[in-house]
Write a structure and sequence with these properties.
Layout (H helix, E strand, L loop, with lengths): L1 E5 L2 E3 L5 E8 L8 E6 L6 E6 L5 E3 L7 E6 L4 E6 L8 E9 L2 E4 L3 E5 L2
Parallel strand pairs: 2-11
Antiparallel strand pairs: 1-3, 3-8, 4-5, 4-9, 5-6, 7-8, 9-10, 9-11
Length: 114
């Protein structure tokens, strides 16, 4: 199973970005799909998770600014990020849980700076 993330980049504070991720390979059923982020010297933290039926949870710091979505038929997940802040700068990783195994993508850099 491979996960390919895309959509990162440089944006000014208050701006928006959408990060996307598609899974490929021997996929039978993906239960949860996630976005995590990590900055140098810090632990990876959960940004958002979406279950197969569409239930979602977000990290406390999101505060209504991000929306995670998925397309089960395409084994894809994306996240719309609005009102971005400099502290959102990080590498964003998508992951997927398949039969109790977590698979990870390579990460995409999001930089929020003026």
């Amino acid at each position: 199973v491979q996960l390919q993330a895309s959509g990162g980049g440089l944006v000014q504070p208050g701006g928006s970005l959408r990060v996307s991720c598609a899974a490929s390979g021997s996929i039978h059923s993906i239960s949860d799909m996630y976005w995590y982020r990590q900055t140098p010297g810090k632990q990876r933290e959960l940004v958002a998770v979406i279950g197969e039926a569409g239930g979602v949870n977000y990290g406390d710091f999101v505060k209504g600014r991000f929306t995670i979505s998925r397309n089960n038929a395409k084994s894809a997940v994306w996240m719309q990020m609005n009102d971005l802040k400099p502290e959102d700068t990080a590498i964003y990783y998508c992951s997927a849980r398949i039969k109790s195994i977590m698979y990870w993508g390579q990460g995409t850099q999001v930089t929020v700076s003026s």
